[in-house]
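haha ok so turns out i had the wrong file open the whole time. this is the CORRECT one, sorry everyone. sequence first:
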Amino acid sequence: MSLRERKKARTRTTIQAHALRLFRKRGYDNTTVEMICEAAEVGPATFYRYFPTKADVVLRDEFDPLIVAAFQAQPPDISALAALRAAFRTAFGQMTAQQRAETQQRTQLMLDVPELRAAMTDQYTQAVGLIAEIVAARAGKATTDLDVLAFAGAIIGVAMAVMYALANTPSADIPKLLDQALAQLENGLSL
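then structure:
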């Protein structure tokens, strides 16, 4: 990353960390963007440059590009599901303890706050499109192909299940849970 990109990442991380701290202390609804700006020592224009809404502070993470890059780096002779499992292991396996704690807190907020639950639904729709795009390219199919869309939907369904499991077990290992759920999908979802 260039110096400029590192500074931007640091600012984004600082804003998000202060927001999450304030949400813990005051609650999501009782925390304003102005309070977050004051705590992070940034102006409102800077806040909105990184996060278009207060909800985005909770919903946004930096994992999608890591997952896509790790997926595209997988050998072409393995299945799309095996490639995704490896990509998720790579991307989430690099999480620090702080990132795991923040992901747990963000997950709980998404489940507890109605505004965030609604926004999360839109985020999952976008994620289906992202998964469909990378899987379709790998398979040489259209992103609108039903098989591709069903596959992408199943992957996002697994991610949703992991989110609920994580909310119920705060100390859970995110990469392990995700890999376990994807393994179940790979084995035909037998119970």
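DSSP finds ten helices and no strands in the chain.
again sry for the mixup
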